[in-house]
Specification:
two-stranded antiparallel sheet
Length: 294
């Protein structure tokens, strides 16, 4: 079982929770506002749902009045994760992810499941070894790699997405505030350090920082209040370019039928403004002025 120290609060912990909550709200709002989930990875959202389900098992036996802040946020993270999955699978169109992306997501889940009991045994020994602790460790490991399918999808996507800079800022702030929370807890009166959360939280933060650098270093097409990343942009990242290599010709061939379908959908429906029927705007390599002249 996790100790009460796990629930220690300070201002950075609270700000981290608020940032995480706002990032979820922004993503849901963006999907509804654009009537599209283009560029959002369904695999990543499913993995996040698994993370929250495995981390918040204590909802079944914890008194809500003991820690109402935690109780409400846990319910929100669970509900919002499944709501996003519902939107992407039943309501709005989304980017089709390749078969190998699903295999990669399965490897992330399988690898985290295998590693969780081993990591817990290394850092906590047998006296902290129980089912809830194993599942919490699984959630920490899996959360550190949840973003990888999203990075791979954006690596292979050449159209603007509903993901914008506000979403990235709040998601990145969530991790940044939690790192400050670790420092406060370690150097403060509590003198508490959680090595598992720190190690895999650092991995997750490194991926977010690398992606943020890619995102803001070169925005070739602006989408409402955010921006879009294309394949050339992602080559600039140090981690992303190694984890999500440039798509091969086979991926492009698989994407071709979907691209044709999208063109027919837009051609059969009157388009107003910058968005089409599936929320797709101009490609990063297109020239709007040139298209108008033709």
């Amino acid at each position: 079982m996790l100790s009460p120290q796990h629930y220690y609060f300070n201002v950075f912990r609270i700000l981290g929770d608020v940032s995480h909550t706002v990032s979820k709200c922004i993503l849901i709002w963006a999907i509804h506002a654009n009537r599209s989930a283009e560029g959002v990875s369904l695999i990543t959202q499913i993995l996040y749902a698994v993370v929250f389900c495995s981390r918040y098992l204590d909802l079944f036996w914890t008194n809500p009045s003991h820690l109402p802040w935690n109780f409400v946020l846990k319910l929100f993270y669970l509900g919002s994760s499944f709501y996003i999955i519902l939107l992407m699978t039943r309501v709005y169109a989304r980017t089709r992810e390749r078969e190998k992306a699903w295999k990669f997501g399965s490897f992330c889940l399988g690898g985290s499941t295998v590693a969780a009991p081993l990591v817990l045994l290394i850092f906590k020994k047998w006296h902290h070894y129980d089912f809830e602790s194993v599942m919490w460790t699984l959630s920490e490991i899996l959360e550190s790699v949840c973003v990888l399918p999203q990075l791979i999808l954006l690596r292979q996507t050449s159209v603007p997405t509903v993901i914008d800079s506000f979403y990235l800022v709040t998601l990145g702030s969530y991790r940044a505030f939690y790192i400050l929370n670790w420092f406060v807890r370690y150097f403060g009166a509590e003198h508490h350090f959680e090595p598992i959360a720190a190690i895999f939280g650092t991995v997750q933060t490194a991926l977010y920082l690398d992606f943020a650098w890619v995102y803001w270093s070169r925005q070739r097409v602006k989408l409402r209040n955010g921006g879009v990343v294309d394949a050339d942009d992602l080559d600039r990242g140090w981690l992303v370019s190694r984890i999500a290599p440039r798509s091969d010709p086979e991926d492009e061939e698989q994407a071709a039928p979907f691209a044709g379908q999208d063109s027919r959908e837009q051609g059969s429906t009157r388009v107003t403004g910058k968005w089409g029927t599936r929320g797709i705007s101009i490609s990063a390599d297109d020239d709007p002025a040139g298209e108008a002249q033709r």
